[in-house]
Amino acid sequence: MTNKYNENNGMERVLMALQSFCNFTYPPDTLPPQELWPKTRHIADACNMDIYISRHYLMKLVKNNMAYMSTGSINNSLRWYIATPASLSCVTKAKPQDVL
User: Fold this and answer.
1) What was the pLDDT predicted at 3?
2) Distance of alpha carbon 48 from alpha carbon 71, whole angstroms
3) Is 76 left (phi over 0), alpha (psi -120 to 50) or beta?
4) Can you tell me the distance from the alpha carbon of 79 to that of 40, in angstroms, rounded to the nearest whole number?
5) Which stretches within 1-100 are classed as H helix?
6) For the chain, what is the radius of gyration of the CA atoms?
7) If DSSP codes are grouped into helix, strand and coil, which group holds residue 67?
8) What are the UniProt keywords, alphabetically (predicted)?
9) What confidence score (pLDDT) does residue 63 get?
10) 83: part of which helix (H) or strand (E)?
11) By three-state DSSP, how is residue 74 classified?
12) Structural domain spans, the chain
């Protein structure tokens, strides 16, 4: 049970950090440019965790359609954006990557 609690707690922390970084104001059905999305390092630092652990949680969020991952590396970093109800309809613009 402790492992499941730690897993859920870590994922919740990453989701909250991602939400705080993704507070851009954009018209409905649009996402900000991927260059503006937070890097894995920003999210890891905000959660006080290793970048590989934060990436693990971020990829789980992508798999669960709760976040988007950049289509490629930008300045040698993956970028992430939260999938809010307003942005879920623009999946065609920024498709979640198939992970795991």
Assistant:
1) 62
2) 26
3) left
4) 6
5) 2-21, 40-47, 51-63, 85-88
6) 13
7) strand
8) Transcription, Transcription regulation
9) 95
10) none
11) strand
12) 2-87
Q: What is the pLDDT along the chain (100 residues), one digit of tens a residue?
A: 456 656 678 999 999 999 999 887 888 778 899 999 999 999 999 999 999 999 999 999 999 999 999 998 998 899 999 997 544 444 434 444 433 3
3-state secondary structure of 32: coil
pTM comes to 0.76
What single-letter amino acid sits at 31?
L
Which burial class, exposed, middle or buried, applies to 78 when counting CB atoms under 10 A from its CB (0-12, 13-18, 19+)? buried
Q: What top-level class would CATH report for the domain 2-87? A: mainly alpha
**Amino acid occupying residue 75:** N
Q: Which residue has the tokens 């890097």?
A: 39
* Biggest CA pair distance of the chain: 42
Give residue 29's pLDDT.
78
